């Protein structure tokens, strides 16, 4: 075999085979072209860094806290257990190949995925890099023709390695130190992305809960068109007291200088979806979690073949040469038929190869959906992606914007209206035009003045849409302009592929909880953020800016590997020092509220945790635990602290229970210390 193409995913390998070999057959773990080219694939990461305890037992959870922080350069690699078979296929094909083409995604992560596999094989072959951001046939063929020597990407590969190692060294050291020093029974995890995300939620909740409403006043004049009011204009941030507003009201006696400015505004279609914007859209419209949107989009992509690759940060496509054929495949759809009949073309600003990163925007494929075969959620999501794509071909929507003013004794009153007068792309979403009302009004249509009370309102609690937006735009929380610029370049904290997982991690670890659509920090989450001072390194997105600045220098060969490691080691030590200085006085679980009772088995203190009352002797092997929901099946949702004190002291407690039919009844219960459960006294 002369040429082997190693791709990141199976569908990517198939696209390469279709473009470069055309005639090929599928084999176990790869595609073989009739022309001798072979296209194999990973499943994302096949190789990972070894865990700390695999390198040195003292660095693991069973090690002494005094050994922390640990630091190691060039962390050894290991094969992931569930990926061994595919790795062996790739290795064997690599051994047989004369030239190996790294055909993974065009980005740091794609480079890193290939390099780890290649490094683990121990081979020394000729390797070339295909840098393909346009997955059309022409795009792949052009990238293949322009393949470069792999050594031109050494900086990128090194940056990928150092990013993974840096996150591991910072995250595991900080997590172990905080958990062990606080003597917490729960894992108190810290990390470069999850901790600033948690800090955002905790800070927002704190602002809301300490917010003091301020009552202020304005003056309005309604019109004969009930949708339109004129309101008193005041300086920005000015809030009138009732007395001030009444004084102005009493001075008003002569309306004059009525004007109405009218202009048209064009509104181009909304951008194509990247993953984060799709997740925000689905959360806003349907209340879906980021994880649900990702999972269903992945299903539409992998199993149904109905949409393009979902884990993308781009809202653009590299070129539109295959778009006409794609539209023809869907010509039975009335919206697409309208596009074809009118020779509409896609909004030109959406076709921009310079704004395509590893992948293009999420759009439909040539596959025609059978909605009867799709789940309800799959159908909903496909329709949203389809409509966003189709609307990109329609003309701009046109609004008539009207602004009217009049004055009265030196005070100015203003009314605004924005009316949709030509549907354009909004036709796809069944919107309706509106007849503008404000231009029809005259001074005679304005009614009497009224005093109107207003009150300031706190910011809204985070939901997944607003949290994803702030993660993506985390630079706004930074002061330094250079940090802001870096954060904009790297598109915030986390990636489109990982942000959903970060949110789920915070929820699963009980740092955050869902309350309807809202994301609210728990006591445990607030305790974690409250343990450290405001300037704690891990609480700010600034750490991501620092990391990315160093990684960009590595990528551009402006920082050596040794210098990066030296800076990273200093950072790890500084974070460890911050944790030790601020947590050394904490000697109990962060979720502890009070000592409830003595353990009926070993005599040590029993504490109240989030879900149970537990023995402080758990590290010595005592497993006594009274679960708060221990009577839930009998209709009592929670065992209170007062009831727990009596039960753990060996007393009988009379409680109100409810049968399955809904009938209430009373029974005495007692704690069985041998079985650690509550049972009815017989």
Explain this structure.
With 682 residues, the chain is of the alpha+beta class. The strands form six sheets. It has a seven-stranded mixed beta sheet with strand order 2-3-4-1-7-8-9, with helices on both faces. It has a six-stranded antiparallel beta sheet with strand order 12-13-14-11-10-15, with helices on one face. Strands 18-19-20-21 form a four-stranded antiparallel beta sheet, with helices on one face. Strand 16 (512-515) and strand 17 (518-521) form a beta hairpin. Residues 585-592 have low confidence and may be disordered.
Q: Please state roughly what percent of the residues sit in beta strands, choosing from under 5%, 5-15%, 15-25%, 25-35%, 35-45% or over 45%.
A: 15-25%
How many helices does DSSP assign?
Answer: 20
How are strands sequenced across the largest beta sheet?
Answer: 2-3-4-1-7-8-9
What characteristic shape results from the CA principal axes?
Answer: globular
- In helices, the fraction of residues equals 25-40%
Query: Describe the biggest sheet?
Result: 7 strands, mixed
- Span between N and C termini? 78 Å
Rg over CA atoms:
31 Å
Mean pLDDT metric: 91
What are the segments in which pLDDT stays under 50 over at least 5 consecutive residues?
585-592
Q: What is the structural class? A: alpha+beta
Q: How many β-strands, per DSSP?
A: 24
Overview in brief:
This protein has 682 residues and is an alpha+beta fold. The strands form six sheets. The chain has a seven-stranded mixed β-sheet, sandwiched between helices. Strands 12-13-14-11-10-15 form a six-stranded antiparallel β-sheet, covered by helices on one side.
